[in-house]
Amino acid sequence: IGGGAPNRHALDAFAAMPKPPTIWLDAGCNEAGALEAMLSKPNVRAVLGTESQVDASLLAKFAGHPSLILSLDFFGDGYRGPREILDETTHWPQTIIVMTLARMGVGAGPDIERLEEIKSLAGRRTIVAAGGVRHASDLEALAAIGIDAVLVATALHDGRLTPAQLADLQG
After folding, report:
1. Three-class SS of residue 169?
2. Dihedral pair phi/psi, residue 46, rounded to 5°
3. How many Å separate Cα 170 from the centre of its chain?
4. Could you tell me the maximum CA-CA distance found in the chain, to the nearest angstrom?
5. pLDDT in tens, the chain (171 residues)
6. Hey, how many other C-beta atoms are within 10 angstroms of the C-beta on 31?
7. Residue 22 DSSP SS3
8. Residue 111 C-alpha from the chain's centroid
9. What is the pLDDT of residues 28-42, one digit of tens each?
């Protein structure tokens, strides 16, 4: 995303593990060759972020690929990316991240209204919330509206969300 070269050594090291993990890789890809290379790697799910796109052509070309993830990127001033990607859902892949960057690390909570809106547009696709989770009750609220998965960082790093709380949610 920052414009640097991908860390291929790290990807190769993951791939060489006895049980390689699945990596969700957002490398700021905005051209077909680079996206195709990422999608060809075993155990890599390529994230196509709308903030890196100039139009909807790359998404349209790879929309049916089972390892593609679309990240709908929202900043404080709203959606960032080509409007046709947000408005035309027919090319959305099976997994959609709703990335609300303005909510990351600031304790504002998830953008429930936006997530509900995208969920209604997405049909049966998998929706992943990113940005704003503060504590276990936020995870419960996201589950209640049908969000399938959540990307969490700050609440884990600062200890507001603990392993015990996560275990309680599973029980």
Report:
1. helix
2. -85, 125
3. 22
4. 44
5. 666 676 778 888 888 899 989 989 888 889 999 899 989 988 899 999 999 999 999 999 999 999 999 999 998 889 999 999 999 999 999 999 999 877 776 667 899 999 999 999 999 999 999 988 888 899 999 999 999 999 888 888 888 888 888 888 776
6. 10
7. coil
8. 14
9. 889 999 899 989 988
Considering only CA atoms, which of 30, 94, 88 is closest in space to residue 67? 94
Residue that is written with structure tokens 């919330």 in the block? 129
| Residue 7 Cα distances to 10, 43, 102, angstroms | 6, 15, 27
* Calpha distance 124→93 (Å, rounded): 11
pTM of the full structure: 0.90
Tokens of 3: 């414009």
d(CA 11, CA 70): 20
Tell the residue number behind the tokens 């100039």, with chain if given.
54
Q: Contact 123/144 with Cβ under 8 angstroms?
A: no
The DSSP bridge partners found for residue 24 are: 45
The one-character DSSP state at 18 is S
The pair of three-digit structure tokens given for residue 84, joined into one six-digit string: 């046709």
| Of the candidates 131, 123, 135, 170, the residue with the CA atom closest to the CA atom of residue 151 | 131
